[in-house]
Amino acid sequence: MANVTAAMVKDLREKTGAGMMDCKYALGETGGEIEAAIDWLRKKGLSKAAKKSGRIAAEGLVAVLIRGFDGVVVELNSETDFVARNAEFQALARNIARVAVETGTTDVEALKAAAYPGGETLGDAIANAISMIGENITLRRAAAVHVGQGFIGQYVHNAVSNGLGKIGVLVALESKGDPQALAPLGRLIALHVAAANPLALDSAGLDPAAVARESAVLAGKNAGKPAHVLEKIVESGLKTYFKEVCLLDQPSIHAEHAGKTIGQAIKEAEKIVGTPISLKSFVRYALGEGIERPDPDFAAEVAAARGDI
């Protein structure tokens, strides 16, 4: 039998999208010949993943999982919304979130290399799911929050099952207070984040480039005014901008906090809990956000349905 090296297996996986063990076996069966191994995998129906890897996957699920003081959000994409209702796809999303919590990593490539339930790698599990389900499936991203003590609030919008939906939010509340007393606040803030889509906790957390662009827009709108006047206009405009995009400065959407910002609502909750509360971090994933999707050619679709093309 040919000496099958890790580099050969990696090369075959990249060419076919098949699982690691399948690639290793194929190379062993074909004397280490890459092209012959590709044909072997094709005959066995194990190289389907590679054919589908170029398709746009913007549907799927966002999975949320909390274990004690750690929480993760992952986005697993598919080509169609139909697949999100597939039990195998949902199990895959849940297991990926579980692997992320247990390994403590949110790096996509590291996650793909991590052990997956059943003995294979997570990357192999995704490749196998592609072959079984028949669509391109991609692990797009993952993020985590952590508190030393306190409570992690969560919310899943358009949930198809427990912890799975179209928007996933985690909110990390650091506090010595009773977690049960913190739970209602965590839930309300998570709901707010889902609806208001803040960009950062406060102005210090904003991307400097985004602040610079906003400043440039404000200055451009008021071009020609004296420098000292323009400076005050930009300063005032940025304060308004921060109230719109910074979580702690945003007016709460909830009636319970009418007329208060999220920061003020937290201060109010401290009186009930009896100890300081710090909103340490948050994560909000909306399914498919930022993925460019081609405009559908409806005329071509109708023609194809009629058999014209």
Topology of this protein?
Layout: H1 6-16, H2 20-29, H3 34-43, H4 48-52, E1 59-67, E2 70-78, H5 87-103, H6 108-113, H7 122-133, E3 138-146, E4 150-157, E5 164-165, E6 167-175, H8 179-196, H9 208-221, H10 227-245, H11 262-273, E7 277-286, H12 298-306
Antiparallel strand pairs: 1-2, 1-5, 2-3, 4-6, 6-7
Question: How would you sum up this structure, described in words?
Answer:
A hairpin with a 2-residue loop joins strand 1 and strand 2 (70-78). Helix 1 (6-16) crosses helix 3 (34-43), helix 8 packs antiparallel against helix 11 and helix 9 (208-221) crosses helix 10. The chain is built from twelve helices and seven strands. With 309 residues, it is of the alpha+beta class. It starts with 5 loop residues before the first helix and ends with a helix. The chain is elongated, with a radius of gyration of 25 Å. It has helices at residues 6-16, 20-29, 34-43, 48-52, 87-103, 108-113, 122-133, 179-196, 208-221, 227-245, 262-273, 298-306; strands spanning 59-67, 70-78, 138-146, 150-157, 164-165, 167-175, 277-286. It folds into three domains: 6-52, Orthogonal Bundle (Helicase, Ruva Protein, domain 3), CATH 1.10.8.10; 59-203 and 246-286, Tetrahydropterin Synthase, Chain A (2-Layer Sandwich); 207-245.
As residue ranges, the low-confidence spans are 301-309
CATH class of the largest domain: Alpha Beta
- Kindly, what is the distance between the CA atoms of the first and last residues, rounded to a whole number of angstroms? 49 Å
- CATH homologous superfamily placement of the largest domain: Elongation factor Ts, dimerisation domain
Portion in helices: 40-55%
Look at the structure and give the mean pLDDT.
88
Overall spatial form: elongated
Count helical runs: 12
Over all CA atoms, what is the radius of gyration?
25 Å
